[in-house]
Each structure stands twice: as structure tokens, then as C-alpha cells.
């Protein structure tokens, strides 16, 4: 059994939910924020959820206020914002840190399994992120931790982390990888 399934995450209602409940599903795990330039990705995450949930995709959102304080509200505020503005129906978990010493264990595990490979600087938002971090937080570029909001991890049905997609990668661009995992035999 994958170590991922040994972990738990706190729901927005304060309940601990074992990730083993998702065993056998393909997971797309994302750290999110409501006041970020990448926030519109909620719409495409919801589209992926609607399109593939029946085939076993589970999108899981983990709000964090660690990047530019772009998630300042309460869990209830986050839930309302996501439902009202983007129609989000996929699970959102309690706000938590996703990097540094207080990082959510889910994200410590994910970043251990899928190290940072850099930004695609040929793409404008990837270039912008790289330049911003190089200037303001250069030490963040030398480790494998989360770099910004909307870093996405793709996990196969057996709990293996098979892909890391940085903030600037649009969720719909991952559809091919998701379809391949959904079509793979259990």
C-alpha cells in the first residue's frame, strides 16, 4: 500500500479524513488560493472533476495562505468563494501550510515523491514566476518544496505520484495524462 494512503487530511469541517478512502482512484491534488493570479484555474479544476469523476478522478484542493497571503479568509470563506465564483464541488480541505517546517504531511510526501524540476520559462507565466522567485525568494528555488499556489500533483490508482505540474500549467493541459491513468488497468 502506498504511504500516501497512510496519511490523513483535515476537512473544512475539522474532521480527519484518511486518504485511504481514495485508494483505487486517480488523484489530482492541488494547493489553492482565492486571491492569486492563478485562481481562475478553479474553473478548469472543476471541469476536470465534472468530466472525469465518473471514471475515478478525484480532485482535492488544499488552500494555503503561504504565498503572498493570497488565502486570508477562514475555511468557510474559502468554501463559499469557491462555490459562488467557480461552482466548485470537489473536496476542499482545511487551510494549511504546504511548505517549510509546518507543511501539511500530504505535501511533504508529494514533494518528496515529485521533486521540483523548474518552471517552463519559455511560457510567460513560468518565466514570471521564475523571475519573481529569483529576485524575492531565491532560496525557494533550490529545494523541492511548493513554490506557489496551484502546484498540482497527479497520483495513479495505486497511490504513486506520477507527475508534478507547477502553478503556470493549466489544469486542462493535464487531460491527456489524466485520461491515460484513468484508462490504465487497476
Automatic annotation (TrEMBL):
Keywords: Oxidoreductase, Peroxidase
Key word Ribosomal protein present: no
GO molecular function: peroxidase activity
Domain of life where this protein originates: Bacteria
Gene3D superfamilies: Glutaredoxin (3.40.30.10)
Homology family: Belongs to the glutathione peroxidase family.
Protein name (record): Glutathione peroxidase
Organism: Paenibacillus artemisiicola
Amino acid at each position: 500500500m502506498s504511504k500516501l494512503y497512510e496519511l490523513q487530511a483535515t476537512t473544512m469541517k475539522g474532521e480527519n479524513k484518511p486518504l485511504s478512502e481514495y485508494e483505487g482512484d486517480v488523484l489530482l491534488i492541488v494547493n489553492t488560493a482565492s486571491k492569486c493570479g492563478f485562481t481562475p484555474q478553479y474553473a478548469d479544476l472543476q471541469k476536470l472533476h465534472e468530466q472525469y469523476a465518473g471514471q475515478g478522478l478525484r480532485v482535492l484542493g488544499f488552500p494555503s495562505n503561504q504565498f503572498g497571503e493570497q488565502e486570508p479568509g477562514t475555511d468557510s470563506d474559502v468554501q463559499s468563494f469557491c462555490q459562488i465564483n467557480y461552482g466548485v464541488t470537489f473536496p476542499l480541505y482545511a487551510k494549511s501550510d504546504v511548505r517549510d517546517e509546518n507543511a501539511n504531511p500530504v505535501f511533504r510526501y508529494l514533494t518528496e515523491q515529485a521533486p521540483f524540476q523548474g518552471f517552463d520559462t519559455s511560457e510567460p507565466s513560468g518565466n514570471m514566476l521564475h523571475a519573481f522567485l529569483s529576485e524575492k525568494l531565491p532560496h525557494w528555488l533550490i529545494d523541492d518544496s511548493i513554490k506557489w499556489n496551484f502546484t498540482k500533483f497527479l497520483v495513479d490508482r495505486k497511490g504513486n505520484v506520477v507527475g508534478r505540474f507547477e502553478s503556470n500549467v493549466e489544469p486542462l493541459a493535464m487531460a491527456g495524462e489524466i485520461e491515460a491513468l484513468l484508462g490504465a488497468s487497476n
